Amino acid sequence: MANITDEKIIESLRLFGLTRYEALAYYNLNSMVEAKAIEISEKSEIPRTKIYSVLRRLDEKGFIETEKGHPHIYRPISPSLIFKEEKNKLINQLNAAEMELTYNHENQIAKTQAPMWLIRGEEKIINKEIEIIKKAQKTINMRIGFLYKNELEPLKNALNNEVRNNIEVNILVSNDLYENNKKLDIEKIFNNEKIRIYKADIPSVKMMIRDGKEMLHIYSKFKEKYIPVKNTSIGMWNQYEDICENYDKRFYKSMEKSKNRKSKMKNNKNSKKLNNLN
Questions:
Q1: Which has fewest Cβ within 10 Å: 40, 56, 69, 179?
Q2: Is 65 helix (H, G, I), strand (E, B) or coil?
Q3: Distance between CA atoms of 152 and 263, rounded to whole angstroms?
Q4: What is the CATH architecture assignment of 111-277?
Q5: What is the pTM for the complete model shown?
Q6: Phi, psi for residue 30 in degrees, rounded to 5
Q7: How far apart are CA 121 and CA 141, in angstroms?
């Protein structure tokens, strides 16, 4: 009778497409190193009438090897090799399924008459932000007027991953940005020259635009120092491409103004230094 640990291992093996008898046979053969069919049948409590077909299928699936003779001798393939190969197969299958489901989901969303939804709650909004970032193919443009508690770290990680994939990331950030009651310097925190960050006088709202095709507007009530009040946040997820494209164009205009302002301030600073030297 298998104990709880044995059962967990057997169920794990079944994730690789094995039947229960196949998993039992492979599991017990591992502890035997090599064995005859009758010995495996007895240790695994698999009926003798079924053990030969079970072992044949395990051989075909690459879990064991068979030394033909009278009788045949069976040996398990190393678990480390099996698990590495089977895990890769599972990951590839899951990735393919995710891509197909995402493609179908987004196609259906695009066909709906009103591709706009409300998202309530900080956690759901942050999850949607990360989801949108991961879908980017060309650009992510963000306007950050406030941050939720503990939002910055997952946001930073997701954006840094995207710039490594050659996604253009632009951020307009409030001059007064706080997280956990602490004023932040986003440029120092991100410390990534590939992420273009410009300070701007923007209201306490957030906006994210992906590829000019998908957009998320985020609003909240606040207490002191722009700290969002819990359970008051609303995200407006928008996939009207015309609206998203229009907001994207307006973002670039705002970014250009902030960029020029930053350049002018830098030039003025350099001029003052030269004057002081003279």
A1: 69
A2: strand
A3: 27
A4: 2-Layer Sandwich (3.30)
A5: 0.57
A6: -60, -40
A7: 22
Task: Please say if the pLDDT value at position 38 is more than 80.
Answer: yes
Q: Omega before 71 cis (within 30°)?
A: yes
Domain residue spans of the chain: 4-80, 111-277
Cα-flanking dihedrals φ and ψ of residue 9, to 5°? Answer: -65, -45
The residue whose two tokens read 């007895």 is 42
How far is 20 from 10, CA to CA, in rounded Å?
7
Angle between helices 20-32 and 48-60 (to 10 degrees): 80
Arithmetic mean of pLDDT over the chain: 85
Task: State pLDDT tens for residues 116-143.
Answer: 888 998 999 999 999 999 999 999 999 9
Q: What letter would DSSP give residue 137?
A: S
CATH number of 4-80: 1.10.10.10
pLDDT for 1 equals 45
DSSP-derived letter for residue 75 is E
Q: What whole-number distance in Å separates Cα of residue 29 and Cα of residue 187?
A: 58
Q: What is the pLDDT, as a whole number, of residue 266?
A: 63
